[in-house]
Design a protein that fits this description.
By secondary structure, the chain is mostly helical. The protein has one domain. The chain is built from five helices and no strands. Helix 2 runs antiparallel to helix 3 and helix 3 crosses helix 4. The N and C termini lie far apart (47 Å).
Length: 87
């Protein structure tokens, strides 16, 4: 889906990042907000930004966004770790 946003030129100039890609900055902000609100998973953030899961994890960490983990995620990780340690 394409989304258009209209921002007054003077405000857009203040928001313009050094690399000049304001659209990317807006997309990243939307991904961060969606993740913080628990509307997006880490995988969806990665897909949205064209990143791997590891890159998305790093991206969120760079922006001081803690990873959200469900009880199921933690249990799955615990079981995988237990399996590895028992080998």
């Amino acid at each position: 889906m394409d989304v258009r946003v209209s921002i007054p030129d003077n405000i857009a100039a203040q928001l313009q990042p050094q690399d000049g890609d304001l659209a990317r900055r807006a997309l990243e902000a939307l991904a961060i907000d969606g993740y913080r609100a628990e509307h997006l998973s880490l995988g969806q953030v990665a897909e949205m930004l064209g990143l791997s899961i590891d890159q998305a994890d790093g991206f969120l960490k760079e922006h001081s966004v803690p990873l959200l983990a469900t009880e199921e995620d933690l249990e799955r990780d615990r079981a995988a770790l237990e399996k590895l340690l028992s080998q």
